[in-house]
Design brief:
Largest sheet: 5 strands, mixed
Number of helices: 7
Strand order of the largest sheet: 4-3-2-1-5
Distance between the termini: 208 Å
Number of strands: 5
Radius of gyration: 70 Å
Helix content: 40-55%
Order of helices and strands: EEEEHEHHHHHH
Strand content: 5-15%
CATH topology of one domain: S16 Ribosomal Protein, Chain: A
CATH superfamily of one domain: Ribosomal protein S16
Shape: rod-shaped
Structural class: alpha+beta
């Protein structure tokens, strides 16, 4: 029968308490055991003397008959000076498994995509801005024309000032001047009316045999 010196768990949930026992290696961990050789309480401080308790005499007896301690019990025996524990070399122990490697690769790929995404978005934004600038500097779009029409409709019309028709007035001026020139002056009319009165004395006297002299004779 193969004997093993190992831990047997007791205590409550999340409050473990272990017994150091010697038992058959084929028996369950918390099953039947042959003898109790000590206790281990992981809830106590590491420097506490009650953390690990060993019965060194009985442990040496079972080691002498061929019992093999587990790795954790061998650590306790090495710390107590009962049996030396040789250093183990397991370079693959810290190496992650295949699934862990796949998850790490997927995470690295996601991080690379996330790092490249801002650069792509920035380039796309710059390209869009450049296209908009080119479109604005090129021919006006229907939307721009519609906006211009709406603005022109909303703005009130400005009253147009009638231009001064100076040439027409200048053209109408000569007929008025001509009419004024054709009309005789008031002083000229008065002088013309008085002229016959003043010249009446200069009229020649009627001669004999003229009708005027006959009329004068009849009147006498």
């Amino acid at each position: 029968m193969a004997l093993a010196i190992r831990l047997s768990r007791g205590g409550a949930k999340k409050r473990p308490y272990y017994r150091i026992v010697v038992a058959d290696s084929r028996a369950p961990r918390d099953g039947r055991f042959i003898e109790k050789l000590g206790t281990y309480n992981p809830l106590l401080a590491k420097d506490s003397p009650e953390r690990v308790k060993l019965d060194s005499d009985r442990i040496q007896h079972w080691l002498a008959v061929g019992a093999q301690p587990s790795d954790r019990v061998l650590r306790f025996l090495d710390a107590a000076g009962i049996r030396e524990r040789t250093a183990r070399s397991n370079p693959k122990k810290a190496e992650p498994g295949e699934k862990a490697k796949e998850r790490a690769e997927q995470r690295a790929a996601r991080e690379a995509e996330a790092a490249a995404a801002p650069e792509e978005t920035q380039e796309e934004a710059e390209a869009v801005i450049a296209e908009e600038v080119e479109a604005a500097t090129a021919e006006p779009t229907p939307e721009a024309e519609q906006v211009a029409e709406e603005v022109s409709e909303q703005t009130p019309p400005v009253a147009e000032e009638t231009p001064v028709e100076e040439p027409a007035a200048a053209a109408e001026a000569p007929p008025a001047e001509e009419a004024a020139a054709e009309q005789p002056d008031a002083t000229d009319v008065g002088e013309s009316a008085e002229a016959p009165a003043e010249g009446a004395d200069d009229v020649a006297p009627p001669t004999e045999g003229s009708p005027e002299s006959a009329s004068e004779e009849k009147a006498e």
